[in-house]
């Protein structure tokens, strides 16, 4: 009777409201077996659409609605050529300044069916051929005019509803299952049944909403149909039909659409006009109801079926599309890879023994069978463009990658599981991640695009959606709330509000204790919840690069990013699902830290380190630093949780056997076991490391969990456990791992659990043991790490630790200069003090742009001065390099010729204190003014007399220091409050362990925090503070957090009272009371 050929999903940016999964499920519930999703100017969700269609039994038609300033048309792909042409056309639409849709369709017409009510476009296209041209008739969109157009041009009409909303019969339905994309997809139901939106997604419409321009169908009904359209529908009008038929488009859906439009157009809801939005009638209706709209034009309905029969629906994107390396054929590429791997093995091992050869043969066989040779060669070529890289992720389990110097951890020595990366049962493409120094990444991309061309290469997108506070802020703006009110609310909820939380749940948070949210804010939060995740725009993925052997635009539309790079319309998951192979070229600041620190050491000390053969963990200073958890600045090991764990493992109470464990292996394990659901396993892990007796839950696990003391720590152990214990194949085990580590996995997880339990019991494993092991597997939910990834980063962290232990000044300078640590610059400067470094202020003759470390000093760089322009800093440094140091402030003014604002910031930051004296700062500012007035006097013959102001007092000097540098450099801020805190007789953080079990008072400066929930869902917080002696960790359990949470994010001098608790020889403070030293 009818098929929907024009529907918009939420991947029509700032237009659609429902995901492809929801549209497919709704179409199935209405009895449809075919659906076209035609998102605006894009194929943004094609892989998701195909996946959802498979889940719901829908035959998918791929298409788009191309919309320009002058023209509009729906384009449907009849075949693969049509798909490629749609992709090319969309690419031109986004990339060409003077894109013309009519001209583009003249070029890309083959394989495409065109639906439009655009007279000019259809007339032009018909002059060449009328094949595949149809006039679109849609309720609520001037159907009479469209029907007249069809008669005038003698083109067949086709019915669409421009579906955006859901047509809903009021009722209730059980929650649907989820797909792997995490969107709700109900199973197909009997034809004619209607889905009802859940109460949670259907906010009531307030009077304020109506006042902003949202009217009900009754209020706008007369505007939906002209008298002629009413005649066409054969009833008293669409609005009346909608009211009386028991079916109507969801008004909350339409409201969400209007919110999206208002945000996109940067206007208020009350200012939206009908031309700016869709109409309330644009909904996914049942076929029989669509028939009631077209009693005098039944051929429009039949033509929808005819068109659907012409369109390809058996789409298959499962083939992997590899880049081509230097135009080599498949066999030539494999032979090249094989030889390079052999040469690399000799370089790595000196000679190739039987074990290395067997592993190489195994890996190369799978690589050959899968056709991955080109991919490895391309990645190797890119990796060679930098001296320092860090191949990571599961690819670090590959010996071939190790021999090609893509990765740097020996997979044989460290027992890395290759099947986590590649196995015979894995159908999706491999994924090699390579880190480069962050400031070299752009050069690597430039090389890639120069080597392969923009016609073959493009970056993967991030599909940026509305999220959390940003969604709340944008909704509040279009509702018309004032900026100050929006700012106050968003700042209060920072760090704890999640978009899935209801307004009622949020109002129960301790931060809102004793207050109630207004009805406006409740409504705004309800709308923001629905907005969460809606596609807003594309951005560059942090590293994903796709290279194809021919033309990228025939596989996926390409846009141009803000950086000028070609950007495909899919994010990483859809890219992989479509068979496109992604190479992650990622920027890593720690690589730059190590590079810069090594360069400084070579320049200052004449010490050169061979990066390729460097074994940092053989160094005793490095070992000591790591075992004491002094890893601030050491990438991957510097978070409070990892530092605390390292201290527990090797505390002063640890038995001698703890120190016999391989340090590298323990670092890999410790950095991997930190994950949200693994706290109980962490405690057991430390106990076993320190000698607690233990045994495997089952003998079959000895080969899998032996190295991790019977505890599952790495992602790939999920796969290995399933293989050993339950008879899974490598491919099945890998699928289980993927399901575990993804969200919204309940249905598939239940199937895997049943298979796991059945397979285990067949092998004689008791059900209780199986359940215990399954619980360990579930602890990997959310984020977790594979051993190759952690091993790669542990190696990098070991190098950072070596530099910190042996060259602290150069290391801390490099950390701050590269602006890429877990903590703030203030925290790293404090760490420098604890390492015995003298912190030197910025100086006009001594400071470089970046921080510099030399011997036992750390000099603040000009980069730290807030308000100093980069151009001003560069001009100053250039003048100093070419003509020497400045002898006086007047000479500086004459030679540097900086803007007044730049020179003023330098004075206030203390850059001239060593040259002129701190007491002369006011005089220097007057001299600066006088210098500029003298320049003016040359033109106007004006003269001013220079005054002699008094020096600033100490408070003003400190205030200027904070104003220009962002924090105190000359002293620790707690030193300013010494008189106050001495009255409270606080204990030192460095002596915390001596007070175990006692009530104490401490002072601290806020460093970093982490808010979590206890097992009852109550918020609590972990905060790291520091005093002048050390960093200490404090815990605020729910009851204390509820009392003091509004005080816990301020950079002020804290006064803390609580109980000192000890675990594995490490002390923390359980806080009971919080105050401030400064009132």
Automatic annotation (TrEMBL):
<dbReference type="InterPro" id="IPR016195">
    <property type="entry name" value="Pol/histidinol_Pase-like"/>
</dbReference>
<feature type="domain" description="Polymerase/histidinol phosphatase N-terminal">
    <location>
        <begin position="3"/>
        <end position="70"/>
    </location>
</feature>
<dbReference type="Pfam" id="PF02811">
    <property type="entry name" value="PHP"/>
</dbReference>
<keyword id="KW-0548">Nucleotidyltransferase</keyword>
<dbReference type="InterPro" id="IPR029460">
    <property type="entry name" value="DNAPol_HHH"/>
</dbReference>
<dbReference type="InterPro" id="IPR040982">
    <property type="entry name" value="DNA_pol3_finger"/>
</dbReference>
<dbReference type="GO" id="GO:0003887">
    <property type="term" value="F:DNA-directed DNA polymerase activity"/>
</dbReference>
<dbReference type="Pfam" id="PF17657">
    <property type="entry name" value="DNA_pol3_finger"/>
</dbReference>
<dbReference type="Pfam" id="PF14579">
    <property type="entry name" value="HHH_6"/>
</dbReference>
<dbReference type="GO" id="GO:0008408">
    <property type="term" value="F:3'-5' exonuclease activity"/>
</dbReference>
<feature type="region of interest" description="Disordered">
    <location>
        <begin position="172"/>
        <end position="209"/>
    </location>
</feature>
<dbReference type="GO" id="GO:0006260">
    <property type="term" value="P:DNA replication"/>
</dbReference>
<dbReference type="InterPro" id="IPR003141">
    <property type="entry name" value="Pol/His_phosphatase_N"/>
</dbReference>
<keyword id="KW-0235">DNA replication</keyword>
<dbReference type="GO" id="GO:0006281">
    <property type="term" value="P:DNA repair"/>
</dbReference>
<dbReference type="InterPro" id="IPR004013">
    <property type="entry name" value="PHP_dom"/>
</dbReference>
<keyword id="KW-0239">DNA-directed DNA polymerase</keyword>
<dbReference type="InterPro" id="IPR004805">
    <property type="entry name" value="DnaE2/DnaE/PolC"/>
</dbReference>
<protein>
    <recommendedName>
        <fullName>DNA-directed DNA polymerase</fullName>
        <ecNumber>2.7.7.7</ecNumber>
    </recommendedName>
</protein>
<keyword id="KW-0808">Transferase</keyword>
<dbReference type="Pfam" id="PF07733">
    <property type="entry name" value="DNA_pol3_alpha"/>
</dbReference>
<dbReference type="InterPro" id="IPR011708">
    <property type="entry name" value="DNA_pol3_alpha_NTPase_dom"/>
</dbReference>
């Amino acid at each position: 009777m009818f098929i929907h050929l024009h529907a918009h999903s939420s991947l029509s940016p700032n237009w659609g409201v429902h995901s492809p999964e929801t549209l497919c499920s709704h179409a199935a519930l209405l009895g449809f077996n075919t659906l076209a999703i035609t998102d605006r100017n894009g194929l943004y969700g094609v892989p998701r659409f195909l996946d959802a269609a498979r889940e719901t039994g829908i035959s998918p038609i791929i298409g788009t609605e191309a919309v320009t300033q002058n023209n509009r048309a729906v384009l449907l792909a009849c075949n693969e050529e049509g798909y490629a042409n749609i992709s090319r056309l969309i690419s031109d639409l986004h990339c060409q300044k003077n894109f013309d849709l009519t001209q583009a369709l003249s070029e890309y017409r083959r394989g495409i069916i065109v639906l439009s009510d655009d007279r000019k476009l259809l007339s032009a296209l018909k002059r060449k051929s009328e094949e595949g041209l149809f006039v679109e008739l849609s309720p609520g969109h001037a159907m009479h005019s469209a029907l007249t157009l069809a008669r005038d041009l003698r083109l067949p009409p086709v019915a669409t509803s421009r579906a955006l909303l859901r047509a809903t019969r009021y009722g209730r339905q059980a929650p649907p299952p989820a797909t792997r994309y995490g969107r709700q997809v109900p199973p197909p139901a009997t034809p004619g049944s209607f889905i009802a939106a859940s109460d949670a997604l259907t906010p009531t419409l307030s009077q304020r909403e109506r006042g902003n321009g949202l009217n009900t169908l009754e209020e706008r009904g007369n505007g939906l149909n002209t008298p002629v359209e009413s005649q066409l529908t054969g009833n008293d009008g669409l609005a009346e039909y909608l009211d009386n038929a028991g079916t109507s488009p969801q008004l909350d859906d339409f409201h969400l659409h209007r919110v999206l439009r208002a945000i996109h157009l940067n206007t208020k809801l009350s200012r939206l006009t009908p031309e700016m939005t869709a109409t309330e009638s644009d909904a996914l209706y049942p076929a029989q109801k669509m028939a009631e709209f077209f009693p005098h034009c039944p051929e429009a309905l039949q033509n929808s079926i005819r068109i659907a029969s012409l369109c390809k629906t058996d789409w298959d994107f499962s083939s992997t599309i590899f880049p081509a390396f230097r135009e080599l054929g498949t066999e030539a590429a494999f032979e090249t890879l094989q030889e390079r791997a052999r040469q690399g093995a000799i370089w790595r091992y000196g000679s190739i023994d039987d074990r290395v050869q067997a592993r190489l043969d195994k890996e190369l066989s799978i690589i050959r069978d899968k056709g991955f040779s080109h991919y490895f060669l391309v990645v190797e070529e890119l990796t060679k463009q930098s001296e320092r890289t860090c191949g990571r992720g599961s690819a670090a389990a590959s010996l071939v990658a190790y021999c090609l110097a893509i990765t740097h951890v020996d997979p044989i020595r460290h027992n890395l599981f290759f099947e986590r990366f590649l196995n015979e049962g894995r159908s999706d493409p491999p994924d090699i991640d390579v880190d480069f120094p962050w400031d070299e990444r752009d050069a690597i991309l430039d090389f890639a695009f120069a080597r392969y061309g923009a016609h073959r290469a493009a970056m993967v997108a991030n599909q940026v959606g509305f999220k959390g506070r940003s969604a709340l802020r944008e909704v509040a703006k279009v509702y018309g709330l004032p900026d100050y009110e929006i700012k106050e609310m968003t700042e209060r909820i920072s760090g704890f509000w999640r978009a899935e939380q209801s307004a009622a749940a949020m109002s129960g948070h301790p931060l809102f204790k004793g207050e109630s949210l207004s009805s406006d804010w409740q409504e705004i939060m309800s709308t923001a919840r629905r907005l969460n995740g809606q596609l807003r725009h594309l951005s560059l993925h942090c590293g994903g690069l796709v290279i194809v052997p021919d033309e990228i635009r025939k596989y996926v539309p390409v846009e141009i990013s803000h950086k000028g790079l070609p950007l495909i319309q899919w994010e990483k998951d859809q890219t992989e699902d479509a068979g496109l192979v992604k190479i992650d070229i990622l920027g890593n600041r720690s690589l730059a830290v190590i590079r810069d620190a090594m360069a400084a050491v070579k320049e200052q000390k004449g010490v050169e380190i061979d990066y390729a053969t460097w074994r940092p963990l053989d160094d005793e200073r490095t070992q000591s630093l790591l075992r004491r958890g002094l890893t601030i600045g050491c990438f991957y090991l510097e978070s409070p949780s990892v530092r605390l764990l390292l201290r527990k493992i090797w505390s002063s109470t640890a038995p001698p056997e703890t120190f016999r464990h391989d340090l590298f292996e323990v670092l890999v394990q410790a950095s991997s076991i930190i994950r949200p659901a693994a706290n109980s396993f962490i405690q057991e892990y430390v106990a076993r490391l320190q000698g607690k007796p233990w045994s495997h839950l089952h003998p079959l696990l000895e080969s899998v969990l032996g190295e991790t003391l019977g505890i599952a720590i790495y992602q790939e152990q999920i796969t290995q456990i399933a293989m050993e214990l339950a008879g899974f194949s490598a491919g099945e085990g890998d699928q289980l791992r993927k399901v575990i580590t993804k969200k919204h996995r309940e249905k598939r997880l239940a199937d895997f659990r049943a298979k796991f339990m059945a397979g285990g019991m067949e092998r004689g494993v008791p059900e209780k043991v199986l359940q215990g092991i399954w619980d360990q597997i579930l602890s990997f939910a959310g984020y977790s790490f594979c051993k190759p990834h952690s091993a790669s980063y542990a190696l990098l962290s070991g190098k950072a630790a070596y530099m910190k232990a042996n060259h602290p000044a150069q290391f801390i300078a490099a950390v701050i200069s590269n602006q890429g640590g877990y903590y703030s610059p203030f925290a790293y400067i404090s760490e420098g003090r604890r390492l015995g470094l003298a912190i030197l202020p910025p100086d006009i003759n001594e400071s470089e742009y970046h921080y510099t470390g030399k011997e036992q000093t750390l000099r603040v760089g000009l980069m730290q001065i807030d308000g100093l322009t980069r151009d001003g800093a560069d001009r100053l440094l250039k003048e100093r390099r070419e003509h020497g140091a400045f002898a006086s402030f007047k000479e500086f003014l004459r030679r540097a010729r900086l803007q007044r604002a730049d020179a003023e910031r330098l004075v206030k930051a203390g850059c001239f204190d060593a040259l002129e004296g701190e007491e002369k700062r006011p005089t220097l500012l007057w001299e600066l003014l006088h210098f500029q007035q003298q320049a003016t006097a040359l033109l106007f013959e004006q003269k001013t007399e220079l005054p002699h102001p008094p020096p600033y007092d100490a408070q003003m000097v400190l205030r200027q220091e904070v104003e220009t540098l962002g924090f105190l450099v000359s002293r620790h801020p707690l030193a300013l409050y010494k008189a106050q805190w001495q009255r409270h007789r606080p204990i030192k953080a460095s002596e915390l362990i001596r007070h175990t079990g006692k009530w104490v008072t401490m002072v601290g400066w806020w460093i970093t925090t982490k808010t979590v929930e206890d097992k009852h869902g109550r918020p609590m917080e972990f905060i790291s503070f520091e005093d002048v002696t050390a960093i200490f960790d404090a815990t605020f359990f729910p009851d204390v957090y509820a009392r003091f949470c509004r005080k816990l994010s301020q950079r002020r001098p804290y006064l803390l009272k609580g109980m000192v608790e000890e675990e594995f020889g490490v002390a923390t403070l359980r806080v009971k009371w919080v105050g401030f030293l400064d009132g």
